[in-house]
Amino acid sequence: MALRDLPFQAMGGQPAFEPAALDRFVSAARVAVLAYTRRDGSPCQVPIWYAYDGTRFYIVTSSASPKVKALGRSPRASLTVQDEVPPYRAVIIDGETTLGEAPTKGGVTSDLAVRYFGKMGAREYEKMVAEENARTGLTLITFEPRRVRGFDNHRMIGAPLRAFMRLRQILPIPNDWL
Hints:
The protein is α+β, with helices and mostly antiparallel strands and 178 residues long. The protein has one domain: Pnp Oxidase, Chain A (Roll). Helices cover 32% and strands 34% of the residues. The relative contact order is 0.22.
């Protein structure tokens, strides 16, 4: 089922995402946080890159990583995608994962590097991780959303104030002055 088709639960009295805005938001190249459960039952969170196709999220990682081992034991996970610039937006998606083999070169592996670094940066990144990837192999984590919640504070205020709030972050004066 597409993420936009799941019921959206707004959090903390803040505005919910509209379906089209939700798709655009999670489709952008953002760093997400994947949460899963360790063997001892304690929670673990890790920042990750992802690709989203409108229904599922795809994550590529070292086959030797703790997240692969943990998700192999328990496929339940949570993915948080957020905007760290005012007026703030976030989506928390609960779901289930499946694990598969990812190519060490090409396909979704290279696509993710290009998505986050651009072509030139991706080439350098792939050189940096080539030896490790060849040694450990890569796993493709497919994340299937089951529940979605969060908030879209962009809906609270108009475009001019949103632009000002973002600009305020880079102005060389204290934020509390404006």
